């Protein structure tokens, strides 16, 4: 498996699986219009936090890595700068169920802790998105929050959500 930063030319391959209804049901932003997807995918703020993973030279999924400051008291703000990363993930349904997304997320988490040196990695999902929170648990994340009807789904209305996290020391102890 190869994991690399996304480039604008990845948009059509990513659109091929992101436009699938089963994928679109859970992701934050969904369109079935290829041109709209190209524009969204290529926007610098989105492209800059997107990676893709390839198997045998074919893009099979994408990942989000969004680094931010942790909350802190003002006097120690420098220590919290860039201390957290939120991750997100998607896989082409044709490649699901084999552990590929898990492998990609494990590699990305290793990069977050070992290369970026972050303190904490987080992820969020709708509580009904079992495949996503099972992935979080497979990679060692803890369920930290259970939100009650706090996340608005485009067709289902207000749904429960889960928040997961793992600390650098928990990652190293695994
Ligand atoms: C979330 C998502 C990436 C999970 O995909 P996935 O295929 O379940 O994840 P993996 O590729 O890691 O495969 C893991 C599954 O394969 C199984 N598996 C088979 N061989 C495996 C192996 N060698 N290693 C690990 N898992 C393996 C696992 O048991 C697991 O299935 P289970 O959850 O039923 O037990 C996928 O459902 C998806 O893209 N959903 C739509 C987008 C989305 O929801 N994104 C997240 C928004 S919060």
UniProtKB/TrEMBL annotation:
InterPro entries: Acyl_CoA_acyltransferase (IPR016181), GNAT_dom (IPR000182), N-acetyltransferase (IPR051531). Keywords: Transferase. The keyword Secreted does not apply. SUPFAM superfamilies: Acyl-CoA N-acyltransferases (Nat) (SSF55729). GO terms for molecular function: acyltransferase activity, transferring groups other than amino-acyl groups. Residues 1-169 form the N-acetyltransferase domain. Pfam families: Acetyltransf_3 (PF13302). Coiled coil: none annotated. This is GNAT family N-acetyltransferase. It comes from Auraticoccus cholistanensis.
